[in-house]
Amino acid sequence: MNIIVKKFGGTSVGSIDKIKKIADNIAKEKMFNDKDIQFVVVVSAMEKTTDNLFELAHQISAHPNQRELDMLVTAGERITIALLSLALQEKGIQSISFTGSQSGIITDNSHGNAKILTVNAFRIPTELNKNKLVIVAGFQGVSLEKEITTLGRGGSDTTAISLACYLQASKCEIYTDVKGVYSADPRVVENVCFVKNISYEEMLFLTLNGSKVLHSRAAEFAQKYNIPIEIKSSFENCEGTMISQHMEESYVKAIAHKEKLVKIAINAKKDNQFVDLPDFKTEIFDMEYLDTQVYFLIDKQYQEQFIDEITENNLEYYIDKECLAVITLTGYRICKDIKFFNNLKKILDETCNNDFIIKNQGIGVSVLFNSENFNLVIKVLHKKFLVSEFI
User: Fold this and answer.
1) Is residue 19 part of a domain?
2) Quick one: residue 373, left, alpha or beta (phi over 0 = left, psi -120 to 50 = alpha)?
3) CA separation (Å) from 93 to 31, 320, 378?
4) What is the dihedral of CA 296, 220, 98, 282, to 10 degrees?
5) What are the pLDDT digits (tens) for 310-362?
6) Do residues 171 and 260 both lie within one domain?
7) How far is residue 378's CA from residue 350's CA, in Å, rounded to a whole number?
8) 311, 267 in Cβ contact below 8 A?
9) Same domain, 158 and 268
């Protein structure tokens, strides 16, 4: 059985008309494709549904219980799977919808940002053998304690890739609001270049450093199990970006960025002894040990949550810097290219007033600096290092 996993989210499931459009496109594809090809479709909640559910919770409580939040927000995906299944059935396609728990997505018990432990999706092949199209709710699973959990923002990508691994799918297609991967965020930088091919390693590096095209844990799954991924447009019938094994090109492939970061320092030494840090639940963007301090980069929106965790564990801390940004350039061999580093430093000296930190990360380079210079820095770096004819 040849299985293709398709994932739809964001504005592509933003309304009833768009859900009908997805059903129409799938029906046409099934009509013209080999009959041996079976589809598993993973969907997110309809546009803004998750945000609206979070807002409802915060109208009740300033600090909502994470378990109850998971119970609440997973309703969004259940709405979408049922609507899409109904739309497909109207097209004469047999379909069945499953929640994350019904699909066998088994996670740990970290509400709000759970990790997948295993996949036991035995019900899906059973339904595929009945010639049914299976629709799965992304972003959610069930813990070993039988609690409903969520996988964090962008978690539907991880659902799709993990199911592709379990089902030994020939391909996983991630449908997005854009054509595929670009050399930078088109909303921030003009004249971006479309990236036709990118390696698992480069894609993972970009996602870990702010790119929102693919969830970072989805990129990890794909790399580990060698699942071909195509990032495609939900609205244009055209080829997207293929993610596969790496090629040794020695130029900058793409730029990722993250704004609104806070640098928080924790005293890692008490009574002349180094303390064991707790297993923080807050999402950490980056961390670094330096002498007796541990420096954490945290998204501004998680600052209060992180400080609560620090104080609960009786740790001393101070806010080192606020309003920071990170720009990351990825590409094989650039980290060993002295000419590249000389050009990079010259640009940063001129745009960041000599107030920046460069970190060599093996497959790329990241720059930490003050957010007030962000727009200028990213545009100058993109213009200097991203050359369209090489992509």
Assistant:
1) yes
2) alpha
3) 10, 57, 47
4) -10
5) 998 888 899 988 899 999 998 877 878 888 888 899 999 989 888 899 988 87
6) no
7) 13
8) no
9) no
Q: Is residue 170 part of a domain?
A: yes
146 and 13 together in one domain: yes
Which of 127, 152, 177 is the last residue in one of the domains? Answer: 177
Is residue 191 very low, low, confident or very high in pLDDT (cuts 50, 70, 90)? confident
For position 249, what pLDDT does the model report?
59
Q: Which two tokens stand for residue 377?
A: 């820095």
Of residues 186, 187, 189, 164, the one with CA closest to residue 174 = 164
HEC secondary structure over 14-43:
CCHHHHHHHHHHHHHHHHHCCCCEEEEEEE
233-255 average pLDDT score:
78
Q: How many helices (H) and strands (E) does the chain have?
A: 11, 22
Could you list the residue range(s) of the whole structural domain that residue 344 is in?
Answer: 254-390
- Asked whether 347 and 255 are in contact (CB, 8 A), the reply is no
Both 38 and 149 in one domain: the answer is yes
DSSP string, 149-186: EE--TTHHHHHHHHHHHHHT-SEEEEEESSSSEESS-T
**Residue 367 DSSP one-character state:** E
Total count of domains within the chain? 2
Same domain (yes/no): 160, 299 = no
Q: Are strands 254-267 and 317-330 parallel, antiparallel or unpaired?
A: antiparallel
Say if 243 falls within a structural domain. Answer: no
CATH code, domain with 143? 3.40.1160.10
148 and 267 in a single domain? The answer is no
The verdict on pTM exceeding 0.90 is no
Residue tagged 């001129």 (tokens): 350
pLDDT per residue over 64-119, tens digit each?
Answer: 999 999 999 999 999 999 999 999 999 999 999 999 999 999 999 999 889 999 99
Pick the last residue of a domain from 177, 203, 231.
177
**Tokens in use for 365?**
């380079």
Structure tokens at 273: 């002894």
pLDDT reading at 211 higher than 70? yes
On whether the CB atoms of residues 109 and 67 are closer than 8 A, the answer is no
Cα–Cα dist 366/181, whole Å: 19
